[in-house]
Each structure stands twice: as C-alpha cells, then as structure tokens.
Amino acid sequence: MKLRNSLHLAALFTFTVSSIAPCIPTQAQGTTFEEQEVEQTQVIAIARPFGDNKYDLLVIEQIPEKQQCWSETGTAPAIVDPLLLNFDFTGICRRATDSNGYSIRLDGQDLGLSYILRLVERNGELLLVGTPRIPNMPEIVLGRTRGVQRNFMKVVLDPGWKFSKRAFGGKQVGHFYFSGNSIEIAAASGQIPPVPPSDPVSVASFKDINDDIYKSEIEKAVALGFVAGFKEDNTFRPEIPVTREQLVSIAIDAMNTVVKIDLEATATSPSPFSDVADDRWSAKKIKWAQQNNIVAGKAAGQFQPTDPITRAELMVILRKVSEYLKMQTTQSAELVANKPPMAFSDISGHWAQNIITQMSSFCGVASPLNEQGDVFAPNEPANRNYAAAAMIRSLDCVKGNTPTTPTTPTTPITPNSP
C-alpha cells in the first residue's frame, strides 16, 4: 500500500486516548496461540543487509548466562555486531530469520497470516512495517533504525510495541511476536493501528478436520508452526498428497522447533540437483537437507521436487530427521524402540521394510493406513494429515515424550535414501 494511503487511513484512527479506550478490540475468542513475556533486553531486531541495497529482518534472543550473541555501537543508527556469526551459537542464542519465526500480535490477536513484516527505506531510515495481505487494510509501523548504513542495524521498536514469544498449551515455542497494545500505541502516537479480522489460527476452526483421525496431531503441528491451513477457505485439506519439496520444508521447519537450522550456512554452495534452481522457493531447504544427509536425489542428479512423497520415503526422512535431532541435542543417534513393532502385511521384500518396521516401534511413527488394519501402503502418497502426525510423533520421541511399553530396541540399520 502506498505511503499516502497509509497516512490517510491512519488519520482516520487518530483520537484522544480517553475517547478511544472503550473501542480497543479485546482478544479474539478461540485463538489457539498464547503469548509469554520475555526479557526485552535479551531480544533484538536487526536489519541485515543483503544483495543490492536490500535488508531483511533478523531476530536474536540471548540465552541468559551464555556467551554474548551481539554487541551494539552508536545510536542513529545503532550498528550491531552479530557475534553469533563467529561461533557455534547452539544453546547460546536463538534466532529467527523469516516469517516462520516471527509475526505481529496486536491486542491478543495473531496477525501472522494478515500481515507480512518488511523493512522499507523512507526519509533516511529503515522502517519495520507490517504490510497487509488483506485488501483495503493499512500498513502498521512497528519500529525504525533511526538512520541508514550498509551494515547490521538495530531496529528500535516504537512505543507500544515489545517482544514476546508464542506459546501453546502453556509451553513456549520457538516463534517471536512483535506484540502491540493499542492503548499504549495511541497514548504514545495518537494513532490506533486498525485490527483486521483475526487470522484463522484457531485450528479447531478448520472445517475439514473435525472427523479426521489425526485431528489432535494436526492441531499440535499447526501450533508449532511447521504446517498451516488455507486461509482462503479456512481448510487444512488433510488428504492432499505432500510433494517432496513440501516435505523437506515441513521437516526443516519442524526441526527448527527443537534446534536452530541455519539455512544461510549452505546458501552460497551450488544446487546439488539439476531440477532445483537456486531461485526456487524450496532451494535453500533442499540444499541444506541434502548437505546434512536428510534427503538424497533421484536418478540423473534430479530431486523431482513436485513429485508426491511416498509413505515409505516419508519414513526414511523421518528416521534421518530423528537421528539428526538426537545428535544435536547430545543424545545417542540410535533410535531406541519403545513399543512393539507393527507386523505390516504388505511390506515384505520392500526396500524400506526394515525402516518402516523400526519406525513403527519408535513412538508409532509408522502406522497402518488411516490407523486401521495391518496395511502400511508404502508406495502410496503420504497425505498432509499423516505427514503432520508422523512428524509430531518423531519430535515427541526425540524429546522423550514416549510411550512406556518396554520392548527390545531394534538393530540400527542403514536405509536407502529417497
């Protein structure tokens, strides 16, 4: 939206504090996500330069009593030295680099699907703005750099805005909020940011999962942020097959809820697959996954990103995801069984037989088709509902949220790669 339109719309919402207080919207009912307070001095928003005079947004959180993650010099703008670039920041710093890691929350409403955060240069400084996805809504200004240099710059939040963290079921998850309060914003600036209809993030509102056997696991996956619904019709579309590139994206975003995945570490290396161009939306994630032995290619050096992922291939990837996460959280990489393996009737002689059997004994990650009978259907496409559920089971098993049924661990195996 152009600046003049934004200013015009903002003027419509300018009142005295006493006259606007009764009109401030209350928190949306039924919202799945909560928020938790964070120490403001332990979080920073940074304008990070890249390309030809462009900047993107980086959010860093300092873990208390750990090595310093950044330092600042100056004020207009404040130049930031991201010290975490000089050491392994695992367990020291938390950071978010894209819309999966941060969003706007205004008056208790999560606006992550209604607004996208951008840095734009205006009047000699960078502004942190929420650009609306909904027609006829104005942009929201959240902060500024107070100057421009071709360097890492601190984004100073405007009065009424602060950092917080997303929570689900009382537990904090790895997602930052730029959280605003209309009364405080109005008191500081005289302008009330208009609140659009709340995003359809209350997963209970997905009209097509109420009778889905994976409903609870879909809800948990959406809450963690590694899958989402379709806002145009408020559906999840649980039975749509997942493509190979979509599964890679889901896997990395899911892993990012446990350990921080640095896609930039592999950004400069060439694409390992001839059919995945460097500017493809999934290219960075596929490249990272290949370099970290999460996925491999198909014939003739191709990845075939738009092909459906099979249920057998899903199990291989989830096995590798689980091993990676266990190693990154200082555990043994071996996947220890915690329940009896399933005796599937249709996997004998299949190339992934051992993997499927093993993953069935690892928190039931591999389970019968539609959770009924003894058919696994290894060559059938993995649908969105089962992919979300299997990923949740893998994460829970890595984190120790496992069944207590004792059984003998399966023997570690070397799988074929999808």
UniProtKB/TrEMBL annotation:
Residues 201-265, 269-332, 339-405 form the SLH domain. Residues 402-418 have a biased composition (Low complexity). Residues 1-20 form the signal peptide. The keyword Lyase does not apply. Residues 399-418 are annotated as: Disordered. Keywords: Signal. InterPro entries: DUF3747, SLH_dom. This is S-layer protein. It comes from Aphanothece hegewaldii CCALA 016. The lineage of its organism: Bacteria, Bacillati, Cyanobacteriota, Cyanophyceae, Oscillatoriophycideae.
